[in-house]
Amino acid sequence: MTELHTGSAAGARFIGDLRDALPPDRVVTRPETLEGLSRDKAHVLEPGRALVGAFPTSAAEVSTVLQLATEHRIPVVPRGAGSGLAGGANAVDGCVILSTLRMDRIVEINTDDMIAVVGPGVINAKLSAEVAKRGLMYAPDPSSFEISSIGGNLATNAGGLRCVKYGVTREATLGLEVVLADGAILRTGRRSVKGVAGYDLVSLFVGSEGTLGVITEATLRLRPSPLPAGTLLASFPSLADAAKAVASMPSVTPSVLELMDQTTIRAVEEWQHLGLDIGSAAMLIARSDTADFGRAELDAVEKACQASGATVIHRSIDALESEGLMGARRAALPALERLGITLLEDVAVPRGRVVDLVQAVVRIAEEHDIRIGTFGHVGDGNLHPTLVIPRGDLAAQGRAMQAAEAIAAAALSLGGTLTGEHGIGTLKRHQLAGEIGPDGLRASWAIKNALDPLGIMNPGKVLPPRQAIPD
Ligand SMILES: Cc1cc2nc3c(=O)[nH]c(=O)nc-3n(C[C@H](O)[C@H](O)[C@H](O)COP(=O)(O)OP(=O)(O)OC[C@H]3O[C@@H](n4cnc5c(N)ncnc54)[C@H](O)[C@@H]3O)c2cc1C
Questions:
Q1: Does 153 contact ligand 1 (Cβ within 6 A)?
Q2: Domain 8-99: which CATH number of 3.40.1830.10, 3.50.50.60, 3.30.43.10, 3.30.360.10
Q3: Which whole number is the average pLDDT over 32-56?
Q4: What's the CA gap between 230 and 169, in Å, rounded?
Q5: What's the pTM value of the predicted model, to 2 decimals?
């Protein structure tokens, strides 16, 4: 890989050329603005120092930024809303932060083809609201849907609450426009739901965390708005019992199947006073949008919960009450953040191994003397054990880092993955080899080198250094 220029003379020339090529409001160098653009929500990571920020409004302007970055060998960090949890959008020293937030146009919503064509800066909730007005649904709904951008969702292959039934972002992506490192504008994919011509480049770019190019437009699959959903809330005497219930309902696919443990329930209740049962060790929230408010499907869920020892089961078809419960689940992370610095894990295992995973997390919390609140998309086997570090307690921070490594190792040993939806970013870069192995790393580096030979795209993210690959 070529040496990237982060020194002041090269940087100054780059900024000068950027200002010459773009309208004045597209380029920012104010230190306070750069500081705000330099980190995401992975609170335990320290970002580098950005050189400049760019706010292009079109693919052509993104192309200009990348051509100049290539010419001057300047690292490029693509950035959506900065809500990522893996340090993917964190600045690296001497970089240009390329924000897509001004590319926020919904270009087309086509109800016949059931697709939307959007810029990367569109906020997920805005797209969802616009398509809902036309009787359609954009399915991927990360808990951060009100703040995260479609570009960020694509780049991380975001999951969400209803992904258990409708699939994650990759399943909703038909076509992409991507500006490559050298400034070339690539259009790949299609508008039809089916299509298998050539390599599946769309799937390659989805989840590539800004390391292969900048996504500048997406053609997204829409679905009919679902029927009104019914909601079921079940309380359990232990976390393992709740996990057992999930493993024992393989014949149903609720539209939501979420878990919260006692630490999380208490944190949400202390903050929002919603009347949650703080005595229960764990809570499952299931929704079904099949006929009659999901009656038959929720009957099956209820039976599985009862057989696994649920102490309280509450069902509702009231839309407001259901939304309140979903809000409680979405409040899990911010509620835990009120208790200290959080280190959010994002492991996923096959659904039948969730019981083993939650038991491993409880054991690891005890062994490392760390408070962990566990919640997540349990129907997908995807949990977020969230390690809470008392502010200023460096010893606890060290123990938390070790506990997080142990949780990731436990997930791998159960046939799972390091990250179900947040991505590798900088947070888990050192662990990637443990999951994909040396051959996987070599293949990944071959792709990276082919698309970004100078290594300017989000360097230091996702892939560990090539030199570190064992023979
Ligand atoms: C409270 C809270 C709840 C969350 N819940 C969920 C959840 O349920 N599911 C989930 O999956 N995530 C969740 N997240 C994490 C985060 O919201 C997602 O990862 C989201 O997809 C990031 O979008 P963003 O626009 O903020 O991207 P950013 O954080 O700005 O960027 C994320 C990554 O994408 C790259 N990137 C951004 N835009 C582009 C682009 N146009 N082209 C190429 N690369 C790009 C960046 O370089 C970076 O690597 C949550 C976060 C918070 C704070």
A1: yes
A2: 3.30.43.10
A3: 95
A4: 24
A5: 0.95
